[in-house]
Structure formats: structure tokens, C-alpha cells
Amino acid sequence: MKEYKLSQVAKMLNVHRDTILYWEENKMIPKPRRNPKNNYRTYNEKEIKLISDIRGVKIS
């Protein structure tokens, strides 16, 4: 399954990356997994769909 970085997910959801960080910090979405090599947040398509459903934003 393909993995996406925070900036890619923000673009897909048409929100600023800081918005996703805000949602995460305020427990409005589940915490993402981290890439063990670089500690970047990673999301798969199922997780992106879940965020979209929880926050009521469309995936573009």
C-alpha cells in the first residue's frame, strides 16, 4: 500500500499542513504512524479516507 507524507495529504484534502497538525494535537483525528527512517508522519489511503470522513472534507 502506498504511503503519503503530511504535505501530500494536506494537498489531497485541500487544507494547510498546519490544519492536520492542529487536528492531531487536539485529538480530532488519530495519530499517524511514523517512518522509522526519518520520523516523518505517514498515511495510507485508508487513513486519509478516515481523516476525510471525520473532518468532513473531500479528497481531491
Automatic annotation (TrEMBL):
<protein>
    <submittedName>
        <fullName>Zinc-responsive transcriptional regulator</fullName>
    </submittedName>
</protein>
<dbReference type="InterPro" id="IPR009061">
    <property type="entry name" value="DNA-bd_dom_put_sf"/>
</dbReference>
<dbReference type="GO" id="GO:0006355">
    <property type="term" value="P:regulation of DNA-templated transcription"/>
</dbReference>
<dbReference type="InterPro" id="IPR000551">
    <property type="entry name" value="MerR-type_HTH_dom"/>
</dbReference>
<dbReference type="GO" id="GO:0003677">
    <property type="term" value="F:DNA binding"/>
</dbReference>
<dbReference type="Pfam" id="PF13411">
    <property type="entry name" value="MerR_1"/>
</dbReference>
<feature type="domain" description="HTH merR-type">
    <location>
        <begin position="3"/>
        <end position="60"/>
    </location>
</feature>
